[in-house]
Design goal:
By secondary structure, this protein is α+β, with helices and mostly antiparallel strands. It is globular and about 55 Å long. The N terminus is likely disordered.
Length: 343
């Protein structure tokens, strides 16, 4: 027996009108969201600022992944000793962070160092990282011991009242300058990588809703291929500083002859990967910094991380008002490079 499906005529009172309502609500929401967009918000990807530094090389993906896994393993068992403490008082503690350790592990290790039995756990929870170094950057790391001190020191960093010096061993073309100031924009590209942007793009919206921010670094050459550069002390007037205001892609191309270039960097802003990006833009990427075109293998040696060291921090103490200068011992690569300069 064949079953004949029953078809009921639609009653006019039972017709569903909700989809029409939802469509009108969606259109209204879209209109409202458009009104909330900033006036300078790009409408298409083509309207966003164009990064002027290249994206990370393809080979860097696997290298960075392996480095991250290694660092995670090392960080999980890492512990500080009293020999790592560079400065300490009632309000602050500064330690020498080694290469290949995450800052979060430094923070937890400081807590254990100061209170092995976890006594006064409430106060330990107020500990705060004042400056965050990249995983493979070594050097001075400052930790505050209370929320009040943290707020004051964060403000000092935000308003560029903290002076910082870094050492970096680069491999690239020989610079035609002794000292140079690089001014550029800084932000994340559509793929999430930090990139250099033109100064004229500062303030413009990027994919994801962030903005291009200003970035400035003073860089001086200390040696080229182990030979020191004859120059006076910083600010002496000898070898006047050049200034690059970034407007377009770097004209420096990768050369066949690459030499080791030791530099000291003075970041005047505090952007993520700032020195690494500016060294890349200048054609002297940091040795081992594969993410920003640095050599991974050099003179028959493979490098496990980039060679960048936070040499010193100086600032006004947030409580006492006294001047504080904190220096970190040099890693082996830096001490060897500097020893050649002073020969």
């Amino acid at each position: 027996m064949t079953r004949i499906p029953l078809v009921y005529p639609a009653h006019p009172l039972l017709q569903i009108t909700r989809p029409l309502r939802l469509s009108s609500m969606a259109a209204e929401a879209h209109a409202n969201s458009s009104q909330l967009q900033p006036e300078n918000a790009p409408q298409t990807l083509a309207d966003y600022p164009v990064p002027l530094s290249p994206p990370p090389p393809l080979l860097s993906k696997n290298v960075e992944l392996n480095r991250a896994l290694t660092a995670s393993s090392k960080s999980s068992i890492f512990s500080l000793s009293r020999n790592d403490v560079l400065f300490e008082d009632e309000w602050l503690i500064a330690v020498n962070k080694p290469q290949g350790i995450y800052c979060e592990s430094i923070l937890s290790s400081v807590r254990k160092l100061l209170s092995p039995d976890q006594e006064g756990l409430g106060k330990l929870q107020e500990f705060h990282l004042s400056n965050r170094l990249d995983r493979d950057t070594s050097g001075v790391t400052v930790i505050t011991k209370s929320h009040k001190v943290a707020a004051k020191l964060v403000k000092a960093f935000t308003y560029h009242m903290v002076k910082k010096t870094y050492l970096a061993l680069c491999v690239g073309s020989v610079p035609k300058w002794n000292k140079i100031i690089v001014k550029s924009g800084h932000g994340r590209s559509k793929h999430g990588a930090w990139r250099v942007y033109a100064v004229s793009d500062v303030g413009r919206t990027l994919p994801g809703g962030s903005y291009v921010r200003d970035m400035e670094t003073l860089i001086e050459v200390l040696s080229v291929d182990g030979k020191g550069c004859s120059q006076g002390p910083l600010g002496s007037g000898k070898h006047e500083e050049n200034t690059i205001v970034v407007k377009e892609k770097s004209e420096i191309t990768s050369c066949t002859e690459k030499l080791e270039v030791l530099v000291r960097a003075y970041p005047r802003s505090g952007r993520t990967h700032q020195i690494r990006l500016h060294c890349q833009y200048l054609g002297i990427p940091i040795r081992g910094d594969v993410k920003y075109e640095g050599v991974c293998e050099w003179k028959d040696r493979i490098y496990d991380g980039h060679e960048l060291h936070a040499e010193s921090l100086s600032f006004e103490h947030p409580i006492t008002g006294h001047s504080v200068l904190i220096r970190a011992p040099l890693p082996l690569w830096a001490s060897e490079a500097l020893s050649k300069v002073h020969l």
